[in-house]
Design brief:
Elements lengths: L4 E6 L2 E6 L5 H8 L3 E2 L9 E4 L5 E4 L27 E5 L2 H15 L3 H14 L13 E5 L5 E2 H6 L9 E3 L11 E13 L5 E7 L2 E6 L2 H6 L7 H10 L4 E10 L6 E4 L6 E3 L4 H8 L1
Parallel strand pairs: 6-7, 6-8, 9-10, 12-14
Antiparallel strand pairs: 1-2, 1-3, 4-5, 10-11, 10-13, 11-12, 13-14, 13-15
Helix pairs in contact: 6-7
């Protein structure tokens, strides 16, 4: 169950904060290290993540007491017989880089190349046979720091799920809150005063706003201040392709999507990340 509030405890001071009352400044300067589960007698520590969407989560080392509505089971040892388990898996940097490269190649294929690629894949398909098949825990890709590594997942006999690819115009309501690899053409880069930008990505007259929030700034400080290179690049090069791995949201009181990036290496433009692009102009 989603954690909607947390108890602030510091000495004799004690107060419940709803998620909607917390922002990055309040958390970093006052609440951090002092938030606990709101269930009575449960001492599990709570962490606030200021990404989009923001959320409260259990500290990675703590467990909730038995009977707490936020109690969950951690995956330990080798399992494979209970599909009620769900494991959040963080993709490795190597796998994400490979996925971005493959997505760019797919997006820029000619129609003839697409047909040939489809033929190759169909020839490779075989009908698998299984003996004594065992069920496995269900898995879910996350990019917000809340999952186990692919290595940890493999040690319990689980492979991370496939990363679904979407062009901007194929996003659906069911994608909200999910991790996706997004593709499209960059229409506009609007710089902000925090070293990042709002990138507008389009496909067939449909647009998505790509956001870089507090979590991105904390995770990738060496990417801050480099977005002006991207703004310059799209002014000089036509049809710059954006490929990024992030989380889909639907903007409140509107019908268009936003897409949150959490790490600098999780997006590329024409197969370059911002660090590569900055070297190009140095």
């Amino acid at each position: 169950m989603a954690i909607l509030s947390a108890i602030y405890i510091n000495g004799t001071e004690r107060r419940e904060y709803k998620k909607s009352e917390i922002d990055a400044n309040l958390y970093d300067n006052y609440l951090k290290g002092h938030l606990y589960c709101p269930t009575e007698n449960c001492n599990a520590r709570i962490v606030f993540n200021s990404g989009v969407p923001n959320y409260l989560r259990t500290w990675s080392k703590d467990d909730h007491i038995e009977g707490c509505i936020h109690e969950f089971k951690r995956v330990k040892g080798r399992i494979g017989i209970d599909t009620s388990y769900f494991i959040n898996v963080e993709l490795s940097s190597k796998r994400k880089k490979r996925a971005l490269k493959e997505a760019f190649s797919m997006y820029t294929m000619t129609e003839e190349e697409r047909k040939e690629d489809k033929k190759k894949k169909s020839r490779k398909k075989t009908t698998p046979t299984t003996t004594g098949k065992k069920t496995r825990p269900s898995t879910n890709i996350v990019v917000n720091g809340e999952g186990v590594s692919e290595g940890e997942a493999s040690r319990v006999g689980v492979r991370g799920p496939n990363l679904s690819k979407r062009t901007v115009d194929t996003l659906k309501e069911k994608d909200e809150g999910e991790t996706r690899l997004l593709l499209g053409i960059i229409k506009e880069v609007v710089l902000d005063d925090k070293g990042t930008a709002n990138i507008v990505v389009i496909e067939n007259n449909t647009k998505v706003h790509v956001k870089f929030e507090e979590a991105f700034r904390a995770n990738s400080p060496n990417y801050l201040g480099l977005f002006h290179y991207l703004q310059r690049y799209i002014s000089e090069v036509n049809d710059v392709v954006f490929a990024g791995i992030g989380e889909v949201s639907i903007l409140k009181n509107n019908d268009h999507y936003t897409f949150s990036i959490f790490y600098g290496e999780d997006f590329e433009v024409n197969k370059m990340n911002l660090l590569n692009l900055s070297v190009k102009y140095s």
